[in-house]
Write a structure and sequence with these properties.
Strand order of the largest sheet: 2-1-3-7-6-5-4
CATH superfamily of the largest domain: CorA soluble domain-like
GO cellular component, one term: plasma membrane
CATH topology of the largest domain: Beta Polymerase, domain 2
Membrane topology: Multi-pass membrane protein
Protein name: Magnesium transporter
Strand content: 15-25%
Distance between the termini: 71 Å
CATH architecture of the largest domain: 2-Layer Sandwich
Subcellular location: Cell membrane
Order of helices and strands: EEHEHHEEEEHHHHHH
Number of domains: 2
CATH class of the largest domain: Alpha Beta
Shape: rod-shaped
Largest sheet: 7 strands, mixed
GO molecular function, one term: magnesium ion binding
Number of helices: 9
Helix content: 55-70%
Length: 322
Amino acid sequence: MVTTRLYRAGKLVKTDFPVAEISDYCEEKDATVWADFTSPTAEDLAAIEEELGLHHLAVEDAVHDHQRPKLDRYDSHLFLAAYAVRLDEKTNELHKTEIKAFITPNAVVTVHPEGFDLSPVLQRWDANPDLAVNGASFLLWGLLDVVVDGHFDTVQQLDAAIEAHEDLLFDGKNHGNEIQRDSFELRKNLVQLRRAVLPMREVVNTLMRRDNGLTDPEMVPYFQDVYDHVLRATEWTESLRDLVATIVDTNLSIQGNRMNLIMKKVTSWAAIIAVPTAITGFFGQNLRFVGFATEWGVWLSTGLIAATSVTLYLSFKRRDWL
């Protein structure tokens, strides 16, 4: 499935035209073309490869998945690989969508799998018609701005989830392995997010350089704004990783302290029970001793049991062992 757009002098004048017409429009001075391919094969991209003179290595990277976020420079174009991320609020699972793009002075060609929603990108373009005169730089900015905003939103969601886990640590309830399991999931999501966010610093920084030949000088401040968001998302991701590690360590410490309290109470009660056991064992000897076979001997043993038990209980209570 292919979607196309044609801009002339910053105005959208035509949509959904054949791929074969792209090279003709690119020869016009004020024309900018956008083409979008959904889950294409190498054969599907053969036409656009010929139309724009794309390098075969870039086309090969566009077809194969699991590329590292990067910006490769070729003689006639740039090749971008990036990841759009989204956090499922129900399952807390991080979804990554690989997006590739070919950037020439007069055209931007995007490649992505099915399921990626392009409407935010189109809305970003349509909401800034005054910037459309900057051609391919404007289209690339709109795409990266949406992708990086998605990174930032995901970091905020993960931050909120981590704060909720912090509250669970000290609510006084026993959550079993819930905190450990969820902390592991959060840490895994942050690792995946870091792989998508961290390389974007180099990507956007390269686009801000004036020697790349494709970035319009008027768009540099807008790419600078995207770069600022990338830095904030990267730093936030790194701090959240440290925070999750702290939560895991704190939870283990709390569990250890709780176990120590339990063992202290169990040991204290065992000591209280041991004294009556010793007394009854002594008075249960099959030998003659003071109070043997007398009524006052029974009361003596009972009194000793009660006195020693109460004394031990009060002593342990004062030491906060019970």
